[in-house]
Structures are given as structure tokens and as C-alpha cells.
Amino acid sequence: MTAFSLALALGAAEGVFLAVLLFLKAGKDPLPNRALAGILALLSTAMLAHVVGHLTPLASDIHPVIITALFGCVAPLFYAYIRLSLPSPPLKRRTAIALWMAPLPILATGLLSRFFTDPLVGILQTTQDLGFVASAVLFSIAAIVRLIKAGKESNALFTRPLRLWLTAFTAALSSFWLLALLGEYAFNWENWDIVFSLCGLAILLVGNYGFLRPSVFWDRRGETERASAKVETAAGGALPKYRKSGLPDWMAERYRDKLVAYMTKEKAFTNPDLGLSNLAQSLGIAQHHLSRTINQELGASFYEYLAVLRVAEAKRLLEDPALRELGMADIGLRAGFNSISTFNTAFKRLCGKTPSEYRGEILRSPSAR
């Protein structure tokens, strides 16, 4: 074994170690980390197949087929990882199934090519190669489009470390695929050491960045937890705590993140006609899942949650010097209450005073003079 082959084998071993670590210690948001673990496992296996293929004559004939099949499986898993990492609507069941099924034709044609002779084997191998090309190109473009779209949207969940990491990882994998395609179809490389060197660098990138920036992998939801904590703070700690429902923690946390981001950006609570069903439809979440998420993650019923958000908005409006001439009914309506009596009742229950008393205190404060 040459020094270069040994380096590749060690890189593959690191990839397997990282994959196991990501899978077992998936953190509070397991789906993206487990998708990334799958990517690392596939790349590491391909690297090992490359090393073994050059060491063992028996494996040299089949290892290109195995590597192409493994690369074809990476592409849809890479797209799934980007989708799951972004603060966007979760993958629908049909989309997830389609992503898992996408590599099957590539795997099937590769396996079938081992049981036939020319010219059929050449047709099957060409079909497998075209499947890999289509998979790599289409899923890379789709992932890049998703990243660009997320970058244009103002979302507190799409933090700068997460943005930098996803951009760097996308660039590394896209460069890797580009080199693989050029080497195979443009330059007819017989030795793919350059390609697998880049593959090893991609694995090192995951390892080094993961340990230097643990918030990207292990505590990705810190910003959202702080945002959702404001709900209880605004209520003065008055919200009751609900028992855990049957909804898995990771799913409830993802739904909570999506809910908090939507309410922060769109201020949907200011719509007096907002109900659980139309909010669930806007979020793309099942109504009973949304209800359980609010109970489990925010410690409130749906209507208590709305009341807290609306009272917090009313306090902001009452504190605005430009709106001092605005009547209480208009303040309540702007905050999302459909009547002055509902506004007064909710405000006094959560703040211990009426809106008028709250405004009076503000006007009497030295800063208002």
C-alpha cells in the first residue's frame, strides 16, 4: 500500500467515525445530522472501494460500478440534507420517498451489468453513468436554488454560521462531482486520485467545521429557543405547563421553529380571525400536530399563545410615542383582538393592569416628558 492509499484509507476511517458520531449524537434536530451521516458513510465507502480496487486485482473490475452507484446515492441524500437544514417547509412524505427511490435505477443497472456481456453490458454501464450524471447535476442545482432562495429571505433561523457551513459544504460537493464528471467523460482519467483527494477534503471539512462550530450540528436551535422563551416572558410566567404529548421531541421542535419564525416575520396573530386550522394550513402542518407543538413546546393552549403574542404587540403599540393619540379599540384591533372587552380582559390577566392604566404609567414616566 502506497502512502497515498494509506492517507485515503485513513480519511475514509475518519468519515466512518464522523458518520457514527453524527448518527448517534444527532442533537436536538436529528434528521439533518443523520442525512449528513449517510453522506459521509457513502463517501467513505467509495474511498475504501477505490483503495481496495487498486490493491486487489479481483476488485479492480467491479469497483468502478460500486463507486458510481455510491456517488449516485449521495446526490439525493445531499439535497435532502440541505432541505432539512434550511428553515423551510419540511419534506413531504411523497418527496422523501421519491428521494430514497431515486438511486435505485442507478444501483439496479450497475448490478445487472455484472451478469451480461457486450454489447448489453456497455448499454447498462452507459445508462448507469447517465443516471449518475443526471442525479448529480439535478440535485446539486436544486440544492443551490434552495440556498439562494433561503438567503434572500429574512429568517432568524438561517443564522450566519449555518449559512456559511451549507454554502461551503455545497461548494465542496459540487466541485467534487464536477471533477468526477470531467475526469470520467472529458479527460478519461484512469487514476481518480485527484477526485478522491477532494472527497477526503470534504470529510475533513465536516470534521473540522463540526468541532469548531458545534452550534451548526449539535445546538442548531438555540436562536429559536430564545425566541420562543419570549412567549412565557411576555406572559409574566403565567402560562400553565402541559404534559408531554405523543409528538416526538425532534418533530415538535422543528414545528415550533417554523411556527415562531412565521409568527415573527408575518405577525399572523394580528389577524382577529386567525384560527388553528388556517394557521396549520399556512404552515403546512397537521392541525393536531400544531396544537400538540404549542402545548408541548410553548406550554400554552393555542388561544393562550395568541393572547400572549397579541398583548406583547399591544404593549409595543402603547409604548410608541407616534401612536399616543390612537384609541384603545384601535390598539386592540391592530394587535389582533376582535373587541375592546376581549382586549381589556386579556391585557389585565397577563399584565395585572388595563391598557389604559399601562399607557398612563408610560405617560407619567420621566422618559415620556
Outline the structure in words:
The protein has helices at residues 3-24, 30-55, 57-60, 63-85, 93-101, 104-112, 120-152, 160-186, 193-212, 214-217, 222-234, 249-266, 276-283, 287-298, 302-319, 328-335, 340-351, 355-364. It is mainly alpha-helical and 369 residues long. It has 18 helices and no strands. Helix content is 75%, strand content 0%.
| Percent in helix | over 70%
Whole-number mean pLDDT: 76
Number of strands: 0
Using the alpha-carbon principal axes, give the shape: elongated
% residues in beta strands:
under 5%
Low-confidence sequence ranges: 218-244
How is the biggest beta sheet arranged? none
Give, in order, the helices and strands.
HHHHHHHHHHHHHHHHHH
- First CA to last CA: what distance? 82 Å
In short:
The protein is about 75% helix and about 0% strand. With about 375 residues, it is mostly helical.
